[in-house]
Every structure is written in C-alpha cells, then in structure tokens.
C-alpha cells in the first residue's frame, strides 16, 4: 500500500490522520488538533513521503494509545495492561504502543521523579501518535496499525496504566526513590519531583514571575516577548490555556504598548500550548521559588521563538529542512487553485502546486495594488524538483485560468532573449513567464559560453527593480526610445535541485538577481492518481476575471496604472518591523564574517516578505485586501525559512573552482550519511562508488578537509588491506 492508501485506510476506520514532516514525530500544521481531513483532501497532504500521525481521543472515536516509553514498562506491560490485539512499535521498541478505544478525557503522563523523563503515557484528546508506514527520526520504520483496538472503560484503563507506572518505578528503584541533593541554581541542574502546592499558590507564583518579564512594545520584539510570557504560564507553570489567558489579560496586557486584543493573546496562548519547547513541561512549577528581588527582570531568552539565529555546523549554516506544510497554506484564491491543481494532476506535488498558485496570484494583482512604501506583488519564484515530479501541470493550470479570465497575452513562454522579454512587456505590461530552463540558463552563464544568457539575467533584474517605476527599453536604430510604466513580470521557473545549485557561482549568488529569488524545494515524487479533467471551479474563474477587469487607473490602466494602496493593521506593521530588524541583524553578522552570499540574501529579505504579504492579502480577500497579522506572520516565516535553506544549500554546492566543488560533494555525501546513520563511520568503498575519482584526487580532498577539521579519517586493520573510513566532525 502507498502512503496515501494507508491514510485512506485509517480514515475509513474512523481515525483522523495528520501529516507530519518526514523523519519527525511532531505535526507542524497550525491547529492540527482540529484538523479533520476528508478523503478528497488526503492526496494534498499525503503525497510527498511524509509521516502519518493519528489524532487521538474524541475526534477519532475514543482511540487512545498507551505508550510504554521505558524498558521497565515494556517488560511489565503484559502483566498490567488489558489485552488488546492492536499493538505497534518499531524494531528497537516492539509493541511499545498499546491501542484501545476508551473514554479517557485527557492525556495522562507518568514521569521518573528523578530524571523527569517519560516512563508511561496514556495519550488521548489533544495528542497524536505516529504510525506506519512512517519512519522514525533514527531511520526505523513504524509498524502499521492494522488490528482492532480493544474497547475498555476509561477509568479502568487509566487505573491499569497508573498501576503499570508504579510497578515500573519500583523495578527501576528497588531500594526506594533516591533523595536528591538541594537543587543548585544552574541551567544543568537535575529537575526535582513536583512540589505539592495549592492552585492559588501556583497562580501567585506565576503572576509574580510575569510581573518581572519585559513589557511588549510594538516594533521592539513585542510579539516574541508576549509569546515567551505565554510559554512561561502554559508550559512553565503548567496552567490551563484559559487560566493563562486570564492572567495575561489582567496582569500583563495593561503595560503593553499598545495592548493586545483578547483574540491576539489567545492565539499566543494556543501556540504556547501546542508547539514544541526546549524546556520540560512544568519546569517553573516544579522549581523552588527564586528569592530574587521583585525589581529584577527574569531571563526569557530561552523562551523566545527559535529561529536558529547564527547557527552553523562547522562553518556551514544549519539546515532548516524542507519547507513546512503550514507555510504552503494561503487562504482564498491560492488555496483554491492549489486544490484544483492537486486534484487534476497525474502526480500531485504540493510544493509545485503552491508555487504555481502563488505566482498566478502575484501576476493578477500586479500593477493594481501596492502598499504605502510602494512595494508591489512582483515575485520571482523558483521551484526545485527532480524529473518526473510534476513540474509542468501547475503551469498548464495557470495558462488555463488566464485564458478563462480573458488574459491570453499574460502568459509568457521561455526566454528566447532579453529583447524578446522587453517586447513582450511593452505589448502587455503584466506577464507571467513560466519556464523549465532556469538551470540551463544558469549553466550557460556559469560556463561563460554565451553572453546572451547573461543579458537575459540583467534584464530580468532591471525589470524586478522597476516594478514601482519606469523601465527604459533599449534604443532601436532610427526609432525613439520606449518605456514601460510599472512593469509586472512575474516568474515561475523550475529546475532540478542539484543542477541549479551546482551551476551557481559565488559571483552569481551575490549579483542581486538570485538574492531576490524565492527558492522552494519539492520533495520526492508522490503516488500517481487517475487525474480528473474537471472544468475550472466557478469561484476560481470569477476571481481571476475580477482581477482582469479591475482597472484602478481607469482607461489608462494599461499605460499608467494608479494602484490602490493596501493598508497594514497595527499588528502586521509591528511584525514586519521586527522582521526588518531581524534581517538587519543577520546582515550585520554576515558583514562581520565577510559572508558575501549572506549579505546579499539577507539584504533582500524584508522586501521579499512585504511583497509576499501583499500577495497573501490579495488571495485572502480580493474585494477588500488588508495585510493583517496572519499575512505578516506567514510572510516572515516563509522568507526566514527559505533564506536559511538557500544559504545552507549554497554553502554545500557553490564552489569557486573544481577542487572546491569536489570538497563540497564529499561533505554532502557524509552529511547524508550522518542523517541516516548518526555518528557511525562511512566506509570508503561506499564513498568511492559515489565519487569515482582517482586515488590522488581522493587524497587531495581528504587532506584539505582534514586540515580544515571538517572530517575525521581512520584506517582499520582487517587482516589484509586497511579499511579506510570517514565521518563528519
């Protein structure tokens, strides 16, 4: 069975599946606890090699999971838990999950009072468990949940799980639980067991802590500060979301500038309750009250949203991984076009469908909207995908929609020449170029074989920067010079990932064009389907025609449009102001390290985010677009992620010369090995199969990387010829 077929089978049994990024155990979709996918919606979420989780408790008909999370519980489980045919696990922890259908109101966790590590957990409403055919982060496959869970009275099951916990605890500490030394005030201190305390006393402690946290000030990191306060209450003190919200409204909000709305604070509390955190649950509740003076601020740096700032691995930026699914969700027109594209594709590919829909919306709003700073919706989008993944279908859908909207001249083809691009824009000032030749274009420039291709790149860059002004065309012999007023050239290009990055040079990466690109990588090819050939849905056609007919400049719209100004809410203004400060700080750090690529890409992050926020607003409500908090947050997260991914990929591929390229290839192979095998040594014979170089070339690369302290190298005696092996430092 394919991944999608498994998801359908789970749904048919009344259990709600939730998509989880490949190789992980935590969902990333916003409000995933409320996700209720229909069978028709499953292909859009389970076609990219992701993992599958099952939402537990009431949403899935009372499905609960007794997770045996330690060796003692695994050994004693059959003696204490009610029999059930439904058990799952993985090779190193067989039958570690016992499944039941029971009325268990909420998840119950049982931890080691000394180490605070989980021993047994009865998961229910609000939780989820990963099931087969998913892959564990350590590379092991999960077993598929096929058998029928036993039905049990909820109180009885809870009592059995609790009895198992006490038996496992007794087996672990046969002489009794050891008494701990008084906890020292250090970050590395071992957590003590929870201290008995009344609800009123706990609330007073939480309020006292909150009183010492910094106030939230707009434009000065206010969103992050408020989120940290919510994390402290919900995750640190273990308060309920409703209790935390009440405290924030009463004791924190009055000193914020400006105060938050109740809806905004509830959003912060919900995020704090559902997103993963570095510190253990209840760490503030279970610690001794700190006797520090009331006027001493607490350190909230560990609670701020993690953005992996300035993190590197041996000089290489940390890999943020593929684009999370939650960043491929834009409400309104983009969502509708994505859904249609996925339903009609022979091989649905979520990332490529998103890229096509995003580029189409950017074109439709081009020359028609702007913000107060005169940012426009012009974007250059590059989708990276291997051959056969499904790059062509989103382009066909866009062409179909533009034809239905009466805009056949708005879709361009390939780049024949820079002059051809200019002529196309002069005839029709808003054009969406869709091409599969970006990597070929880059390769031609990289090899320096054709100045024509470099001319194309320069014209594309000039058109991008002229979106809010006038573009002066080339001078033709005997003719007057023409101009294009506020050109809108949107680009949806596709390329093969390795071909694209290996074709880049450092000079090209820093010339401004590539720094302005939005580069998004698709995953592996998903399962095929029998595509439908449905007509375009009426809402898609109606919205596209509305944009085609919308002429803010009146009859002169074609030659001199007067775009409407899309307003920002105060919350959006604050968020994007923080993004600018964030990008400026990253730029300054790159400047200090003389990182030319980092400087070039971070310098454009703010501009890209504001353009994307405009596109989001137009998609969400084309009749009355507003850049709100959701648009600003999405644009920040999207740009931050793809910027870090671009820098990571460029660091591993962009080379100054052939020798540098060989070093990058070896590092890339070892990094893939480390992802799958951890810190295990990689045999040289495996490397030589992937890199069929001469012995001298291998030796030169090995020596260079050893000198850079990037790799470890070892030779092991096997009774014959020594076996060589490598691993990353």
How would you describe the overall organization of this protein?
This protein has 729 residues and is α/β, with parallel strands linked by helices. It has 4 domains: 3-172, Prim-pol fold; 199-303, no CATH class; 327-564, Rossmann fold (3-Layer(aba) Sandwich); 658-728, Arc Repressor Mutant, subunit A. Helix content is 42%, strand content 13%. It has 23 helices and 23 strands. Strands 3, 4, 5, 6, 7 and 9 form a 6-stranded mixed sheet that branches. A 5-stranded parallel sheet has the order 14-15-18-13-19, with helices on both faces. A 3-stranded antiparallel sheet has the order 1-2-8, covered by helices on one side. β14 (411-412), α11 and β15 (430-435) form a beta-alpha-beta unit. α6 (241-252) crosses α7 (262-274). The protein starts with a helix and ends with a strand. Mean pLDDT is 82; it is low at 182-195, 290-296 and 304-315.
Report a brief summary of the structure.
The protein has four domains: 3-172, Prim-pol fold, CATH 3.30.2250; 199-303, no CATH class; 327-564, P-loop containing nucleotide triphosphate hydrolases (Rossmann fold, 3-Layer(aba) Sandwich), CATH 3.40.50; 658-728, Arc Repressor Mutant, subunit A, CATH 1.10.10. Helices cover 42% and strands 13% of the residues.
């Amino acid at each position: 069975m394919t991944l999608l077929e498994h998801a359908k089978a789970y749904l048919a049994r009344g259990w709600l599946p939730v998509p989880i990024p490949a190789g992980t155990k935590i969902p990333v979709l916003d409000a995933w606890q409320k996700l209720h996918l229909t069978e028709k919606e499953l292909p859009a979420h389970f076609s990219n090699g992701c993992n599958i989780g099952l939402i537990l408790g009431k949403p899935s008909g009372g499905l609960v999971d007794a997770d045996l999370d330690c060796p003692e519980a695994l050994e004693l489980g059959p003696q204490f838990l009610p029999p059930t045919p439904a058990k799952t696990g993985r090779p190193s922890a067989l039958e570690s999950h016992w499944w039941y259908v029971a009325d268990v109101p909420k998840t119950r966790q049982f931890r080691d009072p000394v180490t605070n590590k989980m021993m047994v957990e009865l998961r229910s409403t609000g939780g989820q468990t990963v099931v087969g055919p998913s892959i564990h982060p350590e590379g092991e496959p999960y077993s598929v949940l096929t058998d029928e869970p036993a039905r049990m009275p909820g109180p009885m099951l809870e009592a059995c799980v609790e009895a198992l916990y006490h038996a496992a605890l007794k087996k672990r500490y046969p002489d009794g639980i050891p008494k701990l030394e008084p906890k020292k005030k250090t970050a590395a201190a071992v957590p003590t067991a929870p201290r008995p305390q009344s609800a009123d006393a706990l609330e007073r402690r939480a309020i006292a802590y909150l009183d010492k946290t910094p106030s939230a000030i707009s434009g000065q990191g206010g969103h992050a500060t408020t989120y940290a306060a919510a994390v402290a209450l919900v995750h640190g003190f273990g308060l309920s979301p409703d209790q935390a919200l009440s405290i924030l409204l009463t004791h924190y909000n009055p000193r914020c500038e400006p105060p938050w709305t109740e809806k905004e604070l509830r959003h912060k509390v919900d995020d704090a309750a559902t997103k993963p955190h570095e510190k253990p649950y209840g760490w503030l509740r279970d610690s001794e009250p700190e006797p520090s003076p009331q006027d001493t601020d607490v350190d909230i740096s560990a609670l701020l949203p993690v953005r992996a700032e300035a993190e590197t691995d041996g000089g290489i930026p940390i890999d943020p991984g593929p684009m999370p699914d939650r960043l491929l969700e834009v409400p309104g027109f983009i969502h509708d076009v994505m859904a249609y594209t996925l339903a009609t594709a022979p091989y649905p590919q979520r990332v490529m469908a998103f890229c096509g829909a995003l580029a189409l919306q950017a074109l439709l709003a081009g020359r028609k909207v702007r913000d107060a700073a005169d940012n426009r919706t012009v974007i250059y989008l590059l989708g990276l995908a291997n051959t056969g993944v499904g790059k062509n279908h989103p382009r066909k859908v866009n062409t179909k929609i533009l034809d239905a909207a009466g805009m056949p001249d708005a879709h361009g083809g390939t780049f024949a020449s820079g002059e051809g691009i200019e002529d196309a824009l002069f005839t029709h000032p808003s054009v969406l170029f869709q091409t599969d030749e970006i990597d070929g274009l880059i390769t031609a420039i990289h090899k320096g074989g054709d100045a024509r291709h470099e001319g194309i790149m320069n014209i594309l860059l000039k058109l991008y920067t002229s979106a809010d002004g006038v573009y002066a065309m080339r001078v033709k012999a005997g003719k007057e010079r023409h101009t294009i007023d506020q050109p809108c050239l949107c680009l949806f290009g596709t390329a093969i990932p390795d071909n694209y990055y290996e074709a880049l040079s450092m000079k090209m990466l820093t010339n401004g064009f590539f720094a302005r690109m939005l580069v998004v990588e698709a995953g592996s090819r998903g399962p095929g389907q029998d595509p439908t050939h449905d007509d375009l849905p009426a809402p898609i056609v109606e919205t596209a025609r509305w944009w085609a007919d919308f002429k803010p400049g009146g009859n002169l719209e074609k030659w001199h449009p007067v775009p409407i100004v899309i307003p920002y809410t105060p919350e959006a203004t604050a968020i994007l102001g923080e993004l600018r400060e964030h990008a400026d700080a990253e730029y300054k750090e790159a400047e200090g390290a003389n990182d030319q690529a980092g400087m070039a890409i971070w310098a454009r992050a703010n501009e890209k985010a504001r353009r994307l926020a405009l596109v989001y607003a137009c998609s969400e409500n084309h009749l009355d677009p507003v850049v709100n908090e959701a648009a600003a947050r999405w644009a920040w997260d999207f740009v931050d992620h793809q910027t870090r991914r671009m820098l990571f990929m460029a660091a591993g591929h962009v080379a100054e010369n052939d020798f540098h390229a060989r070093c990058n290839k070896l590092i890339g192979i070892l990094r893939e090995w480390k992802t799958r095998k951890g810190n295990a040594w990689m045999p040289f014979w495996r490397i030589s199969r992937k890199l069929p170089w001469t012995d001298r070339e291998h030796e030169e690369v090995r020596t260079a990387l050893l000198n850079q302290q990037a790799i470890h190298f070892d030779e092991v005696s096997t009774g014959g010829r020594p076996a060589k092996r490598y691993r990353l430092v």
